[in-house]
């Protein structure tokens, strides 16, 4: 258990989440202490998604994940209270290990689809991940922020960083 706390303390860094121009965008940036290829692989491996996707206390099941242009994805999260939350989308662009473009829809609010672009920038052994979410409207963006998205995204990225550390240490 002590080792786990050390890993969490080691990887806990601030994620930058900001509203961007145009006003329908939200940008999330984080630098990970891992090579770009590992960051991209961890982001796109369906076997690893349940280990980092979503806040702590939730379990995530990968229902579908076809990482290719036109491929679909669908993840289902379950809270400790048993409630389920499903998310889905379609990959539009996949350029390993540089870029992913996909749609993102929370099935609890159908019709509010956003376009998500993730870029993986090599920074000499570290990787800067920038995720830009383009919403259909400012209201959609602000509605997502009101759901606790900022806290959930930060915790998800903390879990992602912890998993990268475990992989680098050979403890996967």
Looking at this protein, list some descriptive labels:
172 residues; eight-stranded antiparallel β-sheet; 4 helices; 28% helix
Ranges with pLDDT <50 over ≥5 residues? Answer: none
Order of helices and strands: HEEHEEEEEEHH
| Number of helical segments with 4 or more residues | 4
**What's the arrangement of strands in the largest beta sheet?**
1-2-8-7-6-5-4-3
What is the 3D form? globular
Which helices and strands appear, and what pairs or packs with what?
Layout lengths: L1 H10 L4 E5 L4 E8 L3 H9 L14 E7 L6 E7 L5 E12 L3 E8 L7 E9 L4 E8 L3 H9 L2 H20 L4
Antiparallel strand pairs: 1-2, 2-8, 3-4, 4-5, 5-6, 6-7, 7-8
Helix pairs in contact: 1-4
Walk me through what this model shows.
There is one protein chain. The chain is α+β, with helices and mostly antiparallel strands and 172 residues long. The protein has a domain at 13-53 and 95-168: START domain (Alpha-D-Glucose-1,6-Bisphosphate, Chain A, domain 4, 2-Layer Sandwich). The protein contains four helices and eight strands; from the N terminus they run αββαββββββαα. An eight-stranded antiparallel sheet has the order 1-2-8-7-6-5-4-3, with helices on one face. A hairpin with a 4-residue loop joins β1 and β2. α1 (2-11) crosses α4 (149-168). The longest helix is centred in the C-terminal third of the chain and has 20 residues, at 149-168.
Briefly summarize what is shown.
The chain is of the alpha+beta class and 172 residues long. Helices cover 28% and strands 37% of the residues.
């Amino acid at each position: 258990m002590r080792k786990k706390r050390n890993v969490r303390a080691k990887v806990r860094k601030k994620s930058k989440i900001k509203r961007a121009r145009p006003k329908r965008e939200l940008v999330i940036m984080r630098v990970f202490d891992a090579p770009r290829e590992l960051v991209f692989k961890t982001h796109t491996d369906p076997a690893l998604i349940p280990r980092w996707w979503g806040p702590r206390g939730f379990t995530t099941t990968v229902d579908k994940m076809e990482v290719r242009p036109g491929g679909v994805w669908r993840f289902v999260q379950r809270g400790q209270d048993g409630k389920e939350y499903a998310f889905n989308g379609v990959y539009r662009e996949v350029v390993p290990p540089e870029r992913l473009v996909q749609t993102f829809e929370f099935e609890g609010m159908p019709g509010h689809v956003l376009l998500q672009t993730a870029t993986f920038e090599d920074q000499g052994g570290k990787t800067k991940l920038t995720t830009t979410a383009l919403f259909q409207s400012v209201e959609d963006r602000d509605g997502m922020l009101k759901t606790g998205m900022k806290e959930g995204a930060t915790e998800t990225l903390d879990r992602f960083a912890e998993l990268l550390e475990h992989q680098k240490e050979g403890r996967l």
